[in-house]
Each structure stands twice: as C-alpha cells, then as structure tokens.
Amino acid sequence: MPIGLFSCCFGVFAGGLLGSCLRRWIGEDLREMLPRVFGLTAICNGILSVIKAAQMPVVTLAVIAGTLLGHLAHLEDWVVRGLRAGLQRVPTPEGFDLPQYVTIAAVFCASGFGLYAVMVESISGDRAQIFSKAMLDFFVAVLFGGSMGVAVSLIALPQLVIFVLFFFLARVLMPLMDAAMLANFIACGGLLTMAAGLRMSKIREYPLIDMLPSLAMVLILTPLLAGVFG
Predict the structure, then answer these.
(1) d(CA 215, CA 67)
(2) How many other CB atoms are there within 10 angstroms of residue 81's CB atom?
C-alpha cells in the first residue's frame, strides 16, 4: 500500500485548498517573498543532489540531449496549452501567473527527489523520504494556494498519476539500476530542481518541462558511456 505516495498527493490537495481559504490573510509581501525563499531552498537541495553524481559528464550530456528532445517535441508548449484549457473552468484570481503555475506543477510532479522517494517506497517500503516531500509539498501548496487559488490543489491529480506510474515502474527499473545509474539519476533530478528553483525565484526562465526527458536520457546514457567515463 503506497501510503507515503498518497500522503504526498493529499498534502498538495489539502495545502492548495487551505492556502486558497487563507488567501485574504496572506499579504502581498509574503506572496512575493516566500516563493523566492522556496526557490532558494530548491536550489540548495538541487546542489546536494548534483554532488552525488557518479559521472558528471554523463549527467551533463543527458540534460543537454533530454532538453533538446523536449524542445523539439514542444513539451512545455503542449503542457501550457493543456493547463490553460483545463483551468478555463477553474476559478483563478486576478493576475494568475500561468508560467509560475507550470513551474510549481513540475516541482510537485516531476522532481528527481520526489520520483526517487516514490521508487524507494515501492522497492523497500521505506517511507521516510516520501513523507519528507509530503510535508514540504503541503507548505509550498499552502503558500501558492494563497496566491493562485484552488488551481494549486488540482496539481495533486497529475501528481498522483505520475507517482503511481513510477511506483510500479520502480519494480522493473530499480533491479536494473546499479549504483552509478542511481547516483546519476539523482544528480540529474538535482539539476532540474535547481532549474526549478531559479525559475521559481524569477532569476532565470529555464524550459523546465522541456528538460524532463533528461531523467530518461540519464538512465540510457549511463550504461552506454560506462566504458568512457567509468
């Protein structure tokens, strides 16, 4: 029973609703300041993940190749169009920031740490890491629910789909992953987390959704280039 997985998704759902209810008590200064703080913590967490890389050249190549693939497939454009269409029937506050919403959705649904935590729960039953993400996601959802309304709570739906997919994929992937593949996967997720932090802080607009294929590319390239960078 993926209790940790469900708790994480419920945290996003409940946090978004709570933040929406507390919107009038969350001042404009907090709405401007706290995303930058969360962005900074995301950058720090990303750095901690990146330094675990077994072969940094492989991770770098995976990010370049994965981002190019995502860009050619126009992944972020498709996601933005889908979200825009889906949010037409959802009440959103004035000045709703769709690019920021895309960033938040990517952080909730596809962070390297989150996917790894789901895989760990699936294989070993250890829920410590996914519970940590659940707590962090809850507070982040409260914050952004205060600025973006109930739309934030709806991110729990694609998050649930992606996490359940990785929960079952883990039972196929994890036995095939050696220490180097796992370390490079975590490092690649860390780079994406850093990109999300920079984007959340509005320092640099990285194409976060386009970068997501990097997570698959690093699993492919690590064994292929083991003889070169091993």
Answers:
(1) 10
(2) 11
What pTM was computed for the model?
A: 0.79
* Cβ(180)–Cβ(56) below 8 Å: no
pLDDT one-digit tens code per residue, 168-217 = 887 887 777 788 888 888 888 888 888 888 887 878 888 888 888 898 89
Q: Please report, as a single letter, which amino acid is at residue 7.
A: S
Whose CA is closest to 165, among 123, 201, 229, 115? 115
Rg (CA), the chain: 17
Angle of helix 98-110 relative to helix 128-148, nearest 10 degrees, comes to: 170
- Reference 80, options 65, 67, 98; nearest CA is 98
Residue among 219, 174, 203 nearest 63 (CA): 219
